[in-house]
Write a structure and sequence with these properties.
By secondary structure, the protein is an alpha+beta fold. About 20% of the residues lie in helices and about 25% in strands. The longest helix is centred in the last third of the chain and has 9 residues.
Amino acid sequence: MDDSIAIAARDDASIDAVTLLTALKRIWDCNMIVWGTNARGDFTWTCKHCDQQFAGNNATKAVCHVLNKKGQNIKLCTAAIPTIISVGTKIL
């Protein structure tokens, strides 16, 4: 089964007419969200769009951060995330 979907590019100059995007099964599968631990062994994750680091491993908060959705007690991403990434994350 192929989990790839084609999404027409809109406002991203670096993307041609159509880009093939692999659907994410989890936010942690995105290469722009890095999950790990700090020196004390606590779970952390870093948004590579804005370089902010967060404590915990709450996937809902990570998705809301990237999509700039309020209401999850998480700071919203300050970076200009390409439309193709936003669309791919909304598929989750």
